[in-house]
Amino acid sequence: MIAEIITIGSEITTGSILNTHSKYISSKLLELGIETYYHTSVDDNKKRVSDIINIALQRADIIITTGGLGPTDDDLTKEVISETLGLELISDKDIEDNIRNIFSKLDKTMPTNNLKQAFKPEGSQFLKNSIGTAPGIFLSKDNKKIIMLPGPSKEMELMFNNEVIPLIHEDYNIIIKSVNIIGIGESQLEMKIKDLINKDSDIIIATFAKEGEVEVKIIGKGKNKDIIENKINNVIKILKQRFHEYIYGFDNIPIEIIVFNLLKEINYKIGFCESCTGGLISSRFSRIPGVSQVFDRSIVTYSNNAKMEELGVNSNTLEKYGAVSEETAIEMANGLLNRDNLDLSLSVTGIAGPDGGTEEKPIGLVYLCISTKDKSIPIKCNFNGNRESIQNKTATRAFFELRKFLLNK
Amino acid sequence: MIAEIITIGSEITTGSILNTHSKYISSKLLELGIETYYHTSVDDNKKRVSDIINIALQRADIIITTGGLGPTDDDLTKEVISETLGLELISDKDIEDNIRNIFSKLDKTMPTNNLKQAFKPEGSQFLKNSIGTAPGIFLSKDNKKIIMLPGPSKEMELMFNNEVIPLIHEDYNIIIKSVNIIGIGESQLEMKIKDLINKDSDIIIATFAKEGEVEVKIIGKGKNKDIIENKINNVIKILKQRFHEYIYGFDNIPIEIIVFNLLKEINYKIGFCESCTGGLISSRFSRIPGVSQVFDRSIVTYSNNAKMEELGVNSNTLEKYGAVSEETAIEMANGLLNRDNLDLSLSVTGIAGPDGGTEEKPIGLVYLCISTKDKSIPIKCNFNGNRESIQNKTATRAFFELRKFLLNK
Predict the structure, then answer these.
(1) A255-407 adopts what CATH topology?
(2) Closest to A27 (Cβ–Cβ): which among B14, B282, B389?
(3) C or N terminus of chain A, fewer CB within 10 Å?
(4) Gene3D superfamilies this protein is in (chains A, B) (predicted)?
């Protein structure tokens, strides 16, 4: 089955935003055993969108569009596709009510053009949008599958995974497992698994570098599920032997969620004190639903003054060793731990740049400290990259060290 | 003049790399007054590349390809294009020598397939590649301009700027301005500017929704720079009249940077206290280099206990009005303001979900409060979306309200 991905929107063809949808969808399709031969982007123009659809119908079996499902006039995807295929647009009562509800909940008056979103081509089915107003559409006609997804990435990705995959999955087994690694670079890692890659034609092993971590994706394909699973598990066994201390998890469960679950198990409350990350560790942790079970508070002490006032860091320590030092990191973590009902604290102090680096304290130097009532463990790190990248890598490493600490308890 | 950008390579269509070339080239073309209507990506397949070229020749005046110019067998761009246009491939002596030189300089023996790069279609001209071995190609035939650029981004971008721009630049101007808006939805906004859209064929007005904000892009085209600028400024003037209280800036300067600059001007130090955003406001602010000039500290009080201990929120207030209430927001902001050297504080407390929503306090209900020594201004908001989206919208709105406050001081 051949796929074409069509992204619709002048914001793409004028180059004002990057087309990340085509990459996302084609890599997902590949995992399902569906090959993508074409990516097409076109501006918000009725005639040109229609031409694009006609071309795609001639060369692809499955056509996935993103964008142009919203309420505004330049949202014309389903209108054009219906017209191109000679189908009527029919309004769906449930969706109509749903849209009205969303607005009444927000006690806002609904602009009438929002009702546009309740229309779908005859014979098609809506795809649920659990976080936005624009539903997707699935249409099957003359052995062609046409899938229309909304433009916002979060809505598109959620809909693809929850609604689209079950509709297009085929009787062919593709099993994917991911091994998640922190603390070793992608190129170094790749060299150490060269012997595994291309060893077995049914098994694809690929590495993907993310900020501060690497994902090793193992894709197995074949008719027999058990055989594939065995092969994959063998690869994972070898990876565990080679990279044991670097592997933090599997199948892309975020490191902060792993830490969250470990804390829940032992019923520990944690607090963070951050300097150079400015609240990033805390905000990443707070993305987790129900985090309040283990997360009590965090303090961002950006100035030295704040470090002293909020965490009781000693002025002599700051003078003698500097704000970016092991000693300061330890005093920060211990200072926070003095608060009530905290079992564990993590502190971060470092130089994110672009300024503030020196010969012996370069940009990217970061000290972490993990403290409990009975011990403090300082950790020194050096990261490269720009300010944002150093902050991201610091946060990721902080969670990685917390996981290690909690497992060794 | 209409452009189509064609990126060739299976690494793109399989989703293993992101297609950044099309964005780069189309935004550059726009600055030159050339509109891109189509982006096409295709895998390394002779037949399909040929089909793609034929389609492009029918609908675009200028075709820019990237990739497939290298020495290996799956580099087939110029071979296919020559064949499609019925042109011979001829070897160029100078380039041939140049390639030999590069290898002798590296004193490496040259793989013979490198000489492939010395061939070009008859009647075409080479484009100099100052940092790689694969030259680009410029071909003009039947009023169509065809430009072939190498795949590596650095080579492609350098070649585009140094070699391509002089060849395609036209006596034609494009000016783009953006108006950035917070607090009014895209659909509502568009209904209120319907009369401006399509009013003047030289002016394109498009709205782009981002999380919690909307960008209105105004693109002017024409021979006379002053006339375009006047037309754009007139549109902006009207937008200012209609949406004055919602416009926070122009040309996509992030709202937090606008707040940062306003604080610098009056030499104010700010602190944040966050509950439902869990440090997001603080971490977004801390992305800004040099933020320490205006940012002192921030406190994430996730538990009620922390709200009382860190910010001195009254237990009666929490009991009587709840943690998510105007009263608590005010006490949080004032509590933080008691710290030394803070001129301004912003507090956030709300329900980000997925749990914790009730009839009269639904998910998405958020209270902000901005406090200075002499006054406290609470603000009530309702946001929709999932947990992450509510947190993002809250942070964006917080900066928006800070800007408003600082301007009205």
Answers:
(1) Maf protein (3.90.950)
(2) B14
(3) C
(4) 3.30.70.2860, CinA-like, MoaB/Mog-like domain
